[in-house]
Design a protein that fits this description.
The chain is mainly alpha-helical and 116 residues long. The chain has a domain of 69 residues. The chain has 5 helices and 2 strands. Strand 1 and strand 2 form a beta hairpin.
């Protein structure tokens, strides 16, 4: 790591801070859910060729599908969670009504420091 001085007003942005978290090219949350289902099928059910082949099919095609979704949009899981969270509302209120009471202002300093 070099100790070169940066020009004023420029700060280097590390790629690890803005790069989405992936596991084997797919979103890590979806991969954990998929492999939990696969392991439950493979190890939880009695060993039969249908359950093992279904687990193998999910392992190959399911992971491949999640990789394609992640290539399309790396934040697809967060968008889906937000969609299902707000899907119950008939609309998304962008702002409060003009009849809504005003919120009291919050002090910038805690009150204990403010009074001393």
């Amino acid at each position: 790591m070099s100790l070169e001085l940066q020009p004023l007003g420029e700060v280097p942005i590390r790629q690890s801070l803005i790069r989405p978290r992936t596991f084997a090219g797919a979103d890590w949350r979806l991969v954990i859910m998929l492999w939990t289902i696969i392991l439950a099928l493979a190890l939880g059910a009695p060993p039969h060729w249908t359950t093992l082949s279904l687990a193998g099919l999910l392992a190959t095609l399911g992971h491949w599908g999640i990789v394609l979704l992640t290539k399309f949009d790396p934040y697809i899981a967060e968008i889906a969670v937000r969609h299902f969270k707000f899907h119950r509302q008939p609309y998304y209120p962008a702002h409060a009504s003009h009849r809504a009471p005003l919120r009291p202002p919050r002090p910038a300093l805690p009150i204990s420091e403010w009074r001393s």
